[in-house]
């Protein structure tokens, strides 16, 4: 009996090792190098200008990074929300400086044109429209945008405008002293914020949260909300170490924060579900589960090292 148990345990262990090796071999992300043309942006004057660098000193108060793939229909809602916030902020702080980086991730529609035309209409000289030659994925678009940001604080937000943009003030109040403040769609009943989502989306979030907790990210109820704010110091420690370019990148951010003891504060925000998501519930959920396992294994086994 003991021999059978030992044999069974050995067989299971061997299967785990083989499966882990296959996940690492075939699911580990391989980010591509930035193309030369992706080092430049277009503004409302139509001139190509070189992007900044995260390693430079901050020259504006806030950088807003918007990853956008085929978002010509939904992007104007977010841009209007941002414009209203900036106008209100400047009534209180006339010298408030910001930049708005729209990262067109290889869109097949008129996303870039829509962004530039909106900026021209409202004379938003702070817009920097960047086009990726090939699609990277949301995580890649965010990482590339953050890596060329010039703000003392850096926010990335989804292009669909699902989160009320003025909630950034809640995050700014928490992201001091090198911290990361992340929007959360949990515990709204206790905080007075509002969240509107479908039942299937709520169920999937619960399942994903359970899986993420099992793989080592504890204490965060909502890892996937597309509304996260970084001090410049925190961004410099996190984003040069990023590997994941698709949907699971949020979890890698939180893992890197955990490994480097960077404080992460979860802040409830107002959020509503917006039609037109590019995510396939079944296919992308499976993809995210495998990607997350690959990320965790690579860090656990020391395949990925954190740069100082």
Write up this protein.
The chain is of the alpha/beta class and 308 residues long. The chain has ten helices and eleven strands. The protein has helices spanning 2-27, 75-92, 111-121, 138-147, 168-172, 188-191, 199-214, 232-238, 249-259, 281-300; strands at residues 40-42, 48-50, 60-68, 98-104, 127-131, 151-157, 180-184, 195-196, 227-231, 264-268, 271-272. The strands form three sheets. The protein has a seven-stranded mixed sheet, with helices on both faces. Strands 1-2 form a two-stranded antiparallel sheet. The protein has a two-stranded parallel ribbon with strand order 8-11. The model has no long low-confidence stretch (mean pLDDT 87).
Blueprint (SSEs and pairs):
Layout: H1 2-27, E1 40-42, E2 48-50, E3 60-68, H2 75-92, E4 98-104, H3 111-121, E5 127-131, H4 138-147, E6 151-157, H5 168-172, E7 180-184, H6 188-191, E8 195-196, H7 199-214, E9 227-231, H8 232-238, H9 249-259, E10 264-268, E11 271-272, H10 281-300
Parallel strand pairs: 3-4, 3-6, 4-5, 7-10, 8-11
Antiparallel strand pairs: 1-2, 6-9, 7-9
Helix pairs in contact: 1-10, 7-10
Biggest β-sheet: strands ordered side by side in the sheet: 5-4-3-6-9-7-10
Compute the number of helices: 10
Report the mean per-residue pLDDT as an integer: 87
Structural class: alpha/beta
What's the alpha carbon Rg, rounded to whole Å? 20 Å
Q: Rough shape? A: globular
N-to-C span: 52 Å
Taken as a percent bin, the fraction of beta residues is 15-25%
Strand count, sense and barrel status of the largest sheet are: 7 strands, mixed
- The residue ranges in which pLDDT falls below 50 over 5 or more consecutive positions are none
The proportion of residues forming helix, as a percent range, comes to 40-55%
Q: Total strand count, please?
A: 11
N-to-C series of helices and strands:
HEEEHEHEHEHEHEHEHHEEH
């Amino acid at each position: 009996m003991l021999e059978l148990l030992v044999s069974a345990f050995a067989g299971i262990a061997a299967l785990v090792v083989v499966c882990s090796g296959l996940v690492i071999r075939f699911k580990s992300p391989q980010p591509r190098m930035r193309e030369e043309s992706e080092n430049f942006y277009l503004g409302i004057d139509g001139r190509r200008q070189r992007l900044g660098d995260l390693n430079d000193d901050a020259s504006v108060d806030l950088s807003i990074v918007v990853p956008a793939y085929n978002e010509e229909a939904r992007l104007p809602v977010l841009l209007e929300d941002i414009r209203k916030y900036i106008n209100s902020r400047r009534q209180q702080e006339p010298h408030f400086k910001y930049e708005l980086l729209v990262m067109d991730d290889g869109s097949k529609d008129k996303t870039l044109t829509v962004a530039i035309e909106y900026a021209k209409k409202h004379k938003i000289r702070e817009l920097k429209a960047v086009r990726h030659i090939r699609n990277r994925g949301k995580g890649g678009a965010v990482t590339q945008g953050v890596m060329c940001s010039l703000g003392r604080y850096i926010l990335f937000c989804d292009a669909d405008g699902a989160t009320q943009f003025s909630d950034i003030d809640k995050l700014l109040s928490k992201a001091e002293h090198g911290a990361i403040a992340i929007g959360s769609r949990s515990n709204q009943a206790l905080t007075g914020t509002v969240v509107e989502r479908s039942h299937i989306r709520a169920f999937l979030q619960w399942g994903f949260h359970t899986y993420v907790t099992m793989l080592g990210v504890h204490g965060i109820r909502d890892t996937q909300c597309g509304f996260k704010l970084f001090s410049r110091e925190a961004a410099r420690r996190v984003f040069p170490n990023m590997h994941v370019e698709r949907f699971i990148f949020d979890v890698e951010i939180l893992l890197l924060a955990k490994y480097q003891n960077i404080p992460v504060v979860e802040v409830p925000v107002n959020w509503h579900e917006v039609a037109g998501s590019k995510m396939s519930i079944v296919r992308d959920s499976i993809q995210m589960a495998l990607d997350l396992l690959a990320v965790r294994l690579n860090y656990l086994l020391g395949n990925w090292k954190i740069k100082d």
